Amino acid sequence: MESQAMTNPPVRLKVLLRERHWQTYRTFSIEYDKAARKVDPALVGVGPSRAQFHRWTTGQVKGLPYPDHLRVLEKMFPGWTAEQLFERVTEDRAEHPPPDSPAGTDKAEELLKAIEQNLHAPQGDVTWGTPAEMTAPVSPALLNSVEGASDTARRLGRQLLELQRVLRLSDDEAAQLATLSGNIVELSMTVDIDIDPEGWSRVTYRHQLLNLSDKPMARLSREVWFEYTRDRLAIEPVSDPDRRVMIQRVHDTANLSKFACQISPPIQPGEMATVGCVCEGGQFLNDHYWRQSTPRYTRHYTLRVRHQQARQLLRCWAMEEEPNGSENSAEDALVWDYDGDDVVMTLTRDHLRPNQALTLRWDVPHEPA
Taking the complete model, does pTM exceed 0.90, yes or no? Predict the structure, then answer.
């Protein structure tokens, strides 16, 4: 068995590490954390152990490592899939991606064509969330061989293909994002509302933004309204590890605040960043509802509400408003439960378009049970 192991070709990962001079565990761990910080800051410092690293580079793993490890490895080695990194290959084939098929070349041209067409003249109504036609995989290296594409289109194309691997997007989803070029896209928007027993709330926004335009994004406009407030609403920024956020108050009334999250450094074309803020001072008393409009294309929206010591949920329903004003039930995406005396509700929706809105309403007893 030992002699057979000695004659087995190395895994591609080992050859690529040697090529970059990252083959020692210490150096690998440093580079791993650099990539992890770009994928998800929570993954920093939780890379493979020394024993795991040895198994990876000697081909002693059964199947593939955990998904979080794979996301970071694919970030470290753009253009390679996780499966390819753990293949056994001769060293003359390990350092360069395999030849691409004519179909892959055609799809690379389609990708850049979609980006180029929409970059300077974004479509007014893009099909979002239904199957697209472009399903063949595309190698990032092929984008350089397409004639006539601008540098901006190539850069966005490379970022989209990298994003496809990091987020495990299907080829259809990557193709749909290409048709959204010229726009700022919300890959995810999360709103967490924590309501205390007296109705005072803490609202936390998190926006994962992808800049598919040809200009930097330095500002995210928002507004928030409550039926009852305590003085002026308190709004504080939540900064991403790679970004700083400052709140610019634009207009304040007794119940309404219009503001902007100023972002530094700006999100460059093709870049992705998370921007957030926390709002306190709004109160839920009689009407219990939250209406959220979507000013831009939003891949995934999540609203989570915790109503402390509400004890009982009398009614709970959700509606989705279309840009033309029509309304549809969204209760198929609504889940509610009890956590002790707290009422917990979660509403999710995918592939929202600009000028859509979601409204969650609920009733709880106004007097203690």
Answer: no
